[in-house]
Amino acid sequence: MSAQLALFDETFHAPAKKRARRIHPSVPAEPTTTIPTALLRAADWILLNSSGGKDSQAMASHICRLAAKLRLLHRVVIVHADLGDVEWEGTRKLAEEQARRLGVRFEVVKAEGGDLLARTVARFFKLKAKAEREAREQGLDPATAKVAPAWPSSSARWCTSDLKRGPVRKLMTRLVAELGDLGRPVRILNCLGQRAAESAPRAKLAAVEVDRPASNGKRHVTTWRPIHGWTDAEVWKEIARSGLPYHEAYDWGMSRLSCSFCVLGCEADVVLAARLRPAKAAEYVAVEKEVRADFKYGLSMREIVERAAALEAERGELRRPPRGAALARYVGKKAARAYLVCVERGRLDLVA
Ligand code: SF4
Predict the structure, then answer these.
(1) 159 CB near ligand 1 (under 6 Å)
(2) 168, 109 Cβ separation under 8 angstroms
(3) d(C-alpha 114, C-alpha 325), whole Å
(4) Which of 70, 173, 224, 279 is the most buried (most CB within 10 A)?
(5) pLDDT 10s per residue in the chain (352 long)?
């Protein structure tokens, strides 16, 4: 073997070395404050993550109102992670329109390498190859190897990390570069619309925490969940107050937005989504077959489609609900009508 080939052989098989990530010594282990005005004043960038859903929009209008009072709106950026065709139609445009009405910068990020369905299929083949390799190593028949489920789940929530968190961190890198050398890490206040009322795991999250995995030598990232303690009613009251348009999927009866079919969504939501987007539901059924696993733990998309079809047969086709129907349930019909007038006029009262 020539020396060159030997070198190639060695380097080819050497495991890729990961660059050690250094966190600036000034980044504390715990947040130094949890007071909203202090958090906002300390931030170089106030990053509002928006799925286009009701929680992120209520958070955005609430924070923009506070930032406007402190004259800090120029530091606010709304970021939307574009999930492609698996999210509800018009979500990206809606998030952009909300940012425009709030008068703040808008950014879209998108993960490279396909949407959730394409990634699920790719992940299946990787997991299958791994399971077969391990079976061979143990002297077993690879055809009988058990392949781990490829779909995301509450215990393997790769959809959020790959499709949202990762791309948003790339935006953080850009925002840090824009400010140049400040002689200290750039302070990013990363705001999320997660609420305790959504689920038991979310209830355990802190309202404010230092995000050390997202921090490095150049940036100090603090995660803030400004509406962590809010109820559904408080979210809808904020929407009514803000006059910002919300997604019509809520009027149809969806309780959450983002992906039309969420692996963590409740059964009523996914069945309703299958009635509203039958072609997309059929794509999920096809992927289920390809990856040999149910879309949701204990509930396949095939069953979801069957339940949707049974409801169609029993109740007939879904009829378009009146605009503002979801909001009216929380604030009453009169306030919902007043809100719709504000939305039409594009009126927004940030400092009211
Ligand atoms: S909406 Fe659900 S499926 Fe979609 S990225 Fe979020 S957790 Fe994953």
Answers:
(1) yes
(2) yes
(3) 35
(4) 224
(5) 333 333 333 333 445 566 678 999 999 999 999 999 999 999 999 999 999 999 999 999 999 999 999 999 999 999 999 999 999 999 999 999 999 999 999 999 999 989 999 999 999 999 999 999 999 999 999 999 999 999 999 999 999 999 999 999 999 999 999 999 999 999 999 999 999 999 999 999 999 999 999 999 999 999 999 999 999 999 999 999 999 999 999 999 999 998 999 999 999 999 999 999 999 999 999 999 999 999 998 899 999 999 999 999 999 999 999 999 999 999 999 999 999 999 998 866 665 4
State pTM to two decimals. Answer: 0.91
Contact call for residues 152 and 165 (beta carbons, < 8 A):
no
Q: Return the best residue to mutate from 164, 258, 277, 296 for the ligand 1 pocket (most ligand atoms within 8 A of CB).
A: 258
Distance, in Å, from the CA atom of 171 to the CA atom of 258, rounded to the nearest integer, reads 20
Determine if ligand 1 sits within 6 Å of the CB of residue 254: no
Residue owning tokens 């506070």: 66
Find the 267 Cα to ligand 1 centroid distance in Å. Answer: 15
**Domain boundaries of the chain, sorted by first residue:** 36-115+157-231, 254-315
Measured over the CA atoms of residue 310, residue 316, residue 320 and residue 322, the dihedral's sign is negative
Q: Where are the alpha helices (DSSP H) in the chain?
A: 3-13, 36-42, 54-69, 91-102, 116-137, 158-160, 166-179, 200-203, 232-242, 249-252, 267-276, 278-291, 301-315, 325-331, 333-345
CATH for 36-115+157-231, options being 3.40.50.620, 3.40.50.880, 2.60.40.10, 3.40.30.10? 3.40.50.620
Q: Give me the count of residues in the chain.
A: 352
Q: Please state, in angstroms and rounded to a whole number, the distance separating the CA atoms of residues 188 and 75.
A: 10
Q: How many CB atoms are closer than 10 A to CB 205? A: 16
The best mutation among 155, 157, 165, 264 to test binding of ligand 1, ranked by most ligand atoms within 8 Å of the C-beta, falls on 264
Q: Which of helix, strand or coil describes residue 38?
A: helix
